[in-house]
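Revision sheet: structure tokens.
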Amino acid sequence: MKKAFTLMEVNLAIMIMAGGILSILGLYSLGYRENRQSREDVASAAYADAVISPLVMALSATNVKWSVFRELNSMPGEDGWASYINRSSGLVDKNPESIAKGVFSSVMSKMSGGAKGALNVNSAWPTAAAGGLLGGLVVLHDEDSAVVKIAFRATRHPAELLSMPLYYTEVRFQGLANE
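Predicted:
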């Protein structure tokens, strides 16, 4: 009598192997999604750094007059992130980056104009750092406060802007008293 596997044993072994292979294949899609999200998170953080760093540099410059710093308004408005929402549709503006670029250039022009001597900061919007992302920028400042709050978000899809991670920093006035 020869020793061999029965058809039932072979089918059971195939079923167990198939279950293992299918569970491993299911992990590939999860890994792919997490890898894509990780790349987007890193790109978003790099973009935030490229936008926030020049602002921090300009706002914390020691040659900016208090009168100029004091007159810096909240941008894009007192509503903060609500300024990115279209009032009629209730959705995020189709091009939030145009608002963010306006905030960035407004802050940079006010700070460079109010500095005593040259303010050597790159005041151009960091387009190269975007990596296909759309940015949103909010600058909050009370008139008599010595602190400016900067918040940034980046996304691939404008509708998701307000649900993306927030990059935030505060800058304290370090400039000159009025002369």
